[in-house]
Specification:
three-stranded antiparallel beta sheet, 38 helices, mainly alpha, six-stranded antiparallel beta sheet, 913 residues, 11 strands, Phosphorylase Kinase, domain 1, Transferase(Phosphotransferase), domain 1
């Protein structure tokens, strides 16, 4: 539509709104004359303006500008805002719906649906109970809304489930389970949050301003947690924040959340960032309504609207009706009222003519609002004026870059307000800061007033010096926070977004190197700040993980990982002592002991590794003793048992390894209820336990059990890869499973059955290594695949082809040795095994019937030469460190094979004389 025509539409529309409905027809005839299209556009807007604004499926200004009344009518559904119990229906409505809802009584996995709790734009939420008689438990189940069987809806629900799977925060509703219905639609199971929407809870309990702010800060913590994982909620509002009876708020409904990526910030991609623009407009940001790029600032704006409503009882914008157009116009173009002003104008706002049913509501009066905040109208205006005015208006700025940089910064300014400290939302003038100081120290300043007069002249000079010192301190604090945020961004934002992408190794090395420099500079100034020390320890752990944790996509720097883990351990030990054994600090201390143990194990320092792991186990056992029903706590204990099992296996204690592996598996099976859908991470770890346990029982000679365990692990990993095909780490795990399945079949004397598994693994590792030439783990397994295929071919009567495959393995593994990949992603012992594989293939070639004597002699000599190379490698490794129990007999095996070659050669040479 041309701008001039739209201006004409807008002018006539607003004029029509001001007159009674029965007079609008004649007015439009006069105003539009013969322009029937113009009249139709205005009438469509008037018709839509009569409807309460629920949510948009397109950016609001675009909708209004195009006047697509038909599309708008179709899109303005009866969306209920709540995921669980805070829905908008009356009890009677809910009962009626339950009577007609075909899903009531249906069974989803081990749960039975008993009541609908709410319905959103895409999903329905039901109360459900366990139906398998294992134990009593009520949960909330979200599944595709009836009648919306579309690929888009399924995709959104799967995305929400994936987002929640990675979350573990006390103020975010936890994901408990998930899967797919018989019809092929995704569902997920959440903890049941029985509570009230945030605003209703605050009003019913008549919470004062300070108590409301304290509750709101916990919501900010949940949002910040999501932002650190690159998730923007996009629909934050009171009804999506339920407060339980114990006063703990829970953030719900990530149904329209988006995951940020580096491309999100590209102007070229801006038009596609809204993902259908679904939102609740009363709490939506200007950029959401305009269809612009979504960032974490979008949630900061919505948080601002939520807090504004909590403190004032009103929307930031005075409106005479609920017209969609007027609402969008106000949010995008009208500056919000000061909170202290709007509570002062409450009578006027309440008495203004409105077109909805709330015009006579007593809840809009100053008396009602202030009474439910445990104060009176004059005091409430006084409380809101000043700092809170500035804080809220900063959060509600139209330009995203002018709001708070993060939800954490928003909460921190509120914390400063509650402590009487200066807030960043106000200019830091001397009069403002000194006023804050005086109000915090009224009594002591009164007692020293006389003395202050005496030293006034000297005080003026001190003030000048203090001002200079404050400026310098502010600069130092700003630099400190800049470095802190930069290190945090490098590790948690940028690195996490690329860690699972093939070909990202070089970029990750650069990021980790820079982050480590910043962390070392921060550590010098963090000793007196527990919160910063926690951040620092977490960051050092993340660096260690990326450098050399064998259970992450790491960079192969085990020495660097050890150094980073020890830095984190020193900080955790200090925190554990200073906090008198708080649960979180003790749990974090146990976790860093586990990571240190893994890194020590990677250097074959098994005694020190076991010592660290047993310290972790002792701490974890104490922490979980009274948390039998806490899945996260039990998962921690399972992980510690798993770590000890690995270490005692390395030390040759096979029964001990089986004991701890089975402990770990039993705990994780109990957490998941035996079903493969609790959490992606827990399931992956359970598959890992099965895989390692298979290796130990194989060492005990039970190949059938080993293959059975590999099959259970394969089922889990195959499902995960299909649901997340871009995850390179999961692909690695599944390929490892294929490799070891082939290995156990070969050990059982079934080389022909082993070959297909080896070849599946080979094809996958060739793809991964070609995508990232620096991926040492993929290169290592590529070599192992060629080696094992060579052995299987030779055992299956194809010795010549076996020689070629085993030689290819040696070439790959020698390349890794030359590149100095002496880390957890590559073991030099692999090269020793590969050389003996070549030797074994030559031996079988020499033993084939019908081979000329000269060829036999050549083959036995080749076999002897390769066995000798393998033996030399084993002897070199044994000089550096004791060999693991699985390898300790290999030197003797090679020596015996060399003797066999010598005997065969001696016999052939004797026969030729």
């Amino acid at each position: 539509m041309e701008p001039e025509r739209w201006q004409n539409v807008e002018r006539i529309y607003h004029s029509a709104l001001k007159i009674e409905a029965r007079q609008r027809g004649p007015y439009l005839v006069r105003a539009c004359a013969d322009d029937h299209a113009l009249r139709a556009e205005v009438e469509s807007l008037l018709k839509y303006a009569e409807r309460p604004a629920k949510f948009f499926e397109k950016p609001a200004l675009e909708v209004v500008a195009r006047s697509l009344a038909k599309d708008l009518s179709a899109q303005d559904g009866n969306k209920t805002d709540n995921d669980q119990t805070g829905n908008d229906k009356t009890d009677g409505d809910k009962t009626d719906n339950d009577k007609t809802d075909k899903m009531i009584g249906a069974r989803i996995a081990q749960y039975r649906l008993v009541e609908k709790l709410g319905e959103g734009g895409m999903g329905d939420v039901y109360r459900a109970v366990r139906a398998d008689n294992q134990f009593e438990k009520q949960v909330a189940i979200k599944l595709v809304r009836q009648g919306l069987d579309t690929e888009f809806v399924d995709s959104r629900l799967r995305k929400e489930r994936q987002i929640l799977a990675g979350f573990e925060h006390e103020n975010i509703a936890r994901l408990l389970d998930g899967g797919t219905t018989e019809e092929g639609h995704p569902y997920f199971v959440m903890e049941l949050v029985e509570g009230q929407p945030l605003d209703e809870y605050c009003d019913e309990h008549k919470l004062g301003v300070s108590a409301r702010i304290e509750l709101f800060q916990k919501v900010c913590s949940a949002v910040q947690y999501a932002h650190q994982r690159l998730v923007v909620h996009r629909d934050i509002k009171p009804s999506n924040i339920l407060v339980a009876a114990d006063g703990v708020p829970k953030l719900l409904d990530f149904g329209i959340a988006t995951i940020l990526s580096p491309e999100t910030y590209s102007p070229d991609n801006a038009p596609t960032m809204t993902a259908m623009g679904m939102m609740t407009p009363q709490f939506a940001s200007p950029e959401q309504l305009r269809g612009e790029v979504i960032t974490t600032a979008t949630d900061v704006y919505s948080l601002g609207v939520v807090l504004y409503k909590l403190l004032t009882g009103h929307s930031p914008y005075r409106q005479s009706n609920t017209s969609t157009y007027d609402l969008a116009h106000a949010i995008c173009d009208v500056e919000p009222e000061k909170p202290s002003t709007i509570v002062g104008l409450s009578k006027q706002v309440a008495s203004a003519p409105r077109k909805d049913s709330t015009r006579d509501s007593p809840k809009s009066t100053p008396e009602w609002i202030s009474r439910h905040r445990s104060t009176n109208p004059d005091k409430l205006r006084g409380i809101l004026s000043g700092d809170l005015d500035h804080i809220l208006l900063k959060a509600l700025r139209k330009e995203p870059q002018r709001r708070y940089a993060s939800a954490q910064d928003f909460a921190e300014d509120l914390r400063s307000y509650t402590l009487g400290l200066p807030v960043s939302a106000r200019s830091g003038t001397f009069s403002y800061r000194s006023g804050k100081f005086i109000r915090r120290n009224k009594l002591s300043l009164s007692l020293t007033a006389v003395f202050a007069l005496v030293v006034l002249a000297g005080g003026l000079a001190i003030i000048r010096e203090a001002r200079i010192a404050r400026t310098q301190q502010a600069r130092a604090e700003q630099r400190f926070n800049d470095v802190r945020q930069l290190a945090h961004s490098l590790l948690f934002d940028i690195h996490d977004s690329i860690q699972d992408l093939p070909g990202s190794t070089t970029a990750r090395k650069i990021l980790v190197g820079r982050a480590l420099q910043y962390l070392d500079s921060l550590s010098k100034d963090s000793s007196d700040t527990p919160d910063l020390e926690r951040e620092l320890a977490t960051a050092y752990e993340r660096v260690g993980d990326v450098q050399g944790n064998p259970y992450y996509a790491n960079l192969g720097d085990t020495a660097g990982a050890l150094a980073s883990y020890r830095k984190a351990l020193r900080v955790r030990l200090d925190l554990g002592r200073n906090q008198s054994g708080s649960f979180d600090d003790q749990a974090a201390l146990a976790a860093i002991y586990v990571k240190l143990g893994f890194a020590l194990r990677a250097t074959n320092n098994f005694p020190d590794a076991l010592d660290a792991l047993k310290k972790a186990y002792t701490i974890t056992e104490k922490l979980t003793a009274d948390r039998k029903d806490n899945p996260q706590a039990q998962e921690t204990l399972a992980g510690t048992s798993f770590a000890i099992a690995l270490c005692v296996d390395d030390m040759g204690d096979l029964p001990g390894a089986v004991e701890y592996f089975r402990k770990s598996a039993a705990i994780r099976e109990a957490i998941t209820g035996g079903a493969p859908a609790f959490q992606a991470q827990t399931q992956t770890k359970l598959a890992g336990v099965y895989g390692y346990l298979a290796g130990v029982v194989k060492m005990q000679g039970d190949l059938d059990s080993a293959l059975s365990l590999q099959s259970k692990a394969h089922d889990i990993l195959d499902r995960q890869v299909k649901s997340n095909p871009q995850n390179a780490r999961l692909q690695q795990y599944l390929l490892e499973n294929e490799y070891w399945t082939g290995f156990y079949l070969a050990e059982k004397g079934l080389p022909a059955q082993a070959l297909p598994h080896y070849r599946i693994a080979l094809a996958g590792y060739e793809k991964l290594s070609s995508a990232d030439a620096h991926d040492a783990l993929a290169m290592r397994y590529l070599g192992k695949c060629y080696m094992s295929i060579g052995r299987a071919l030779a055992a299956d009567g194809q010795a010549a082809q076996g020689v070629q495959s085993a030689r290819q393995a040696v070439r790959i593994l020698e390349t890794l040795v030359a590149a100095d990949h002496a880390d957890t992603n590559f073991k030099p012992s692999d090269l020793a095994y590969a050389r003996s594989a070549v030797a074994e293939a030559y031996s079988r070639l020499a033993e084939q019937p019908g081979v000329p004597k000269t060829s036999k002699i050549d083959d036995w000599r080749e076999a002897r030469s390769w066995y000798q190379q393998s033996l030399d490698t084993w002897l070199q490794l044994r000089q550096k460190a004791p060999l693991p129990s699985s390898d300790v007999k290999e030197p003797d095996k090679n020596a015996a094979a060399i003797a066999q070659c010598d005997a065969a050669l001696a016999g052939l040479n004797a026969g030729s004389r």
